[in-house]
Specification:
The protein is mostly helical. Helices cover 70% and strands 0% of the residues.
Length: 172
């Protein structure tokens, strides 16, 4: 039993009470084991278990008691691996197809984003060109600009009006 440092007499009493309870529990379990009848052997227990099955069970089981791994046992498991891959070829093919589609979809989305960015920049360029053309046209269509061009060409029939525009007042 491990040594325990105790600070008071009360702790000593608690520890001894726990030890007595544990001893009683162990005696009860021993009596139950003696009273339980032995289970009859099943046909499965009679069948010999191959080394490969033992090794696979030891690798999969959560028990602390495992058989020793030997080189022969590891070889047997590795020999079984190709058979598993061959039996699961449809699933592996489906996984590969999914991975391929995922990657190609990513590249396609990236290309579409690049194309969209390029088209947006081209649209901005065309908008700026349009705004420039409209401002140039507005400048050329002003009355003062038209009069100046007609004078330069020698057309003297068009003169600015000397009469002020008539303002119509609305009466309520």
């Amino acid at each position: 039993m491990a040594e325990i440092e105790l600070d008071s007499f009360e702790e000593l009493q608690e520890v001894t009470a726990l030890d007595e309870d544990n001893a009683l529990d162990e005696q009860d379990e021993a009596q139950e084991v003696q009273e339980a009848p032995e289970a009859p052997e099943t046909p499965e227990a009679e069948q010999p278990v191959s080394d490969k099955e033992k090794l696979m069970r030891s690798l999969v089981s959560d028990d602390d008691e495992t058989d020793e791994l030997t080189i022969d046992g590891i070889r047997q498991v590795l020999d079984a691996a190709p058979r598993w891959f061959l039996s699961q070829w449809k699933l592996l093919l489906l996984c590969l197809a999914g991975i391929f589609l995922y990657i190609t979809n990513g590249y396609q989305a990236q290309m579409e984003l690049m194309e969209e960015t390029e088209l947006e920049s081209e649209l901005k360029d065309w908008r700026y060109r349009s705004i420039t053309r409209v401002s140039e046209l507005t400048l050329l269509c002003r009355q003062s600009q038209l009069e100046q061009k007609l004078r330069e060409q020698g057309d003297s029939t068009l003169l600015p009006s000397k009469v002020a525009p008539f303002i119509i007042k609305e009466t309520p």
